[in-house]
Structure formats: C-alpha cells, structure tokens
Amino acid sequence: MICNRTAHRFWTASLSLLVGLAILADPIAAVAQAYKPPQRGIPGRREGAGTRTGACLVGSRTLMPLTPIDSFSTSATDAPTFFWYVPLTIAKTAEFRLLDANNREVYTTTVLLQNLPGVVSYTLPSEVTTKLISLGKDYQWQFSVLCDSAQPSKNPFVEGTFQRVPLDTTVEADLNKASDRDRPSIYAEAGIWQDALTSLVQQRCTNPADAALTSRWNTLLGSVELQDYTNVPLAPTCAAIGFSPLP
Predict the structure, then answer these.
(1) 83 phi, psi to nearest 5 deg
(2) What is the pTM of this model?
C-alpha cells in the first residue's frame, strides 16, 4: 500500500514537472487565444454578404468581415488593419470607406483584389489615422466588391464599426516585455481585436507550417464564431503586407 502511494506521488510529481516544462517552453500554450470583447451594451450583429443576382462572387462561403460577432472592433495602433474573406470573384477591385457618426465620409480608397479566394486586408495609413480618426469615437467602415460599376446597388458589401483606442498602461507594459508570439493573446485578452488579428496573421504568414500558430488562429476565430473561415487561404493578405504567401 505504501509502495503504491509512493509510486502515485512519483508519477504525479513527474507529470506536474512535464507540464511545467511545456509551459516554460511555450507560455502561450497555457494562454487562451480567445477574444474578450469590451463591454459596450450596443446591440449589433455581423453579417456576411451572400451572392446576389448579377453579383460576381463564386463559392459556398460568403463575403465576410473578419470581425467580432457584433461587428465592432478596436485598434490601438496608428495604422490599423482591416480583414475580410473575399470569395473567388472576377472583380478586380473593392472599395473601402470610413464614415463618421453623422454618416459623413471621412476616407475612401480602392483595394486591389486577386483572382483567387482568400483573406484580403487593408491597412489605414498612419497619416490618415492620426489626422482624421479621433480617439474613442465610433467610425463605420464599408467594404464593397465592385462587381458592376453601372449598378452599384448590386455590389456585395459588408460593414462594421471601428474605434481607435488608447492603450491601457498595464497592457502597454505587458506588450513591451512580451515576445512576438505573446502579443496576439495580450491584445485578445484586452479586447483589442484588430491588433490581435493583425499580429497573428503576420506570424502565420511567416510561419505557415507552425501547428501552434494554426491552433491559436483556430481558437481566435472560433471565439467570434468564424470557425467556418479558419482554413481559408491567407495568400492575398500575406502578399499585401509583404510576407511570403501561404498556400
């Protein structure tokens, strides 16, 4: 009986040591990559844009913004990046617009599309952000695939709400001492969706075969009910942000 207890204690201690060593080797493995949304109390629901009559989108997946469920996202950077899944399309361009709380256009630009399905991104230039985007105020963005210039009403589009936020001092301190691999989890825990997604996309573009990064990607998107989009190609956005494209 004493031997059995001794053996049990030995194996329990050994298991604890192995778990501890695994956590030290990869601390993020013990940290959930799930997104924790800020408390806003404003109802909203993310919607994708399905194929419409005459639209130029092909495939079972719809045009979909990679945003939280309520379509509200934040960024603490001067150059926030927005992401969308764009199905196969013959359209060559899309339009990105930002509107203020009074529905006045703040900024508009054209986004080039590639002739393949995948995640498309657009990074707002820092000079636009600092001059036109006030901290703590809501802005509505719209992303339209320009299928038919003669009939804009038939162009598939998605939209959401964006806010530029100051970085909490505690979060900033955590980021300053964190490794690159830790940063997505810190942003996600702080409710800063766009920066969490951006930093994780950059890592996946440079390390496409990293199973741990793939797992974190799946967890992050799954936490906002985008699990159907975890395996879509990242090639278009990897090329746009200057990283080697994923297959």
Answers:
(1) -130, 145
(2) 0.83
